[in-house]
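Section 5.1 Outputs to date
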Amino acid sequence: MFVSSFDYSPEKTRTSVMESLRCMNLSYLDLVQLHDVEFASGLDEIKETISCLSDLKREGIIRSIGITG
């Protein structure tokens, strides 16, 4: 059985962004890329992740959102 190590949940997304800020000692990120979207469980999961990133953008924590495959 294949178990994905990708976690696109809003909680993990926010945690990952905040950890990146802490590690780099920054107050915001210019760009956050959602990588390898083909490994998400489905479109609903991707929509939730993009919604979380949009919230972070509105909060001024990130400036731009990207998606890569």
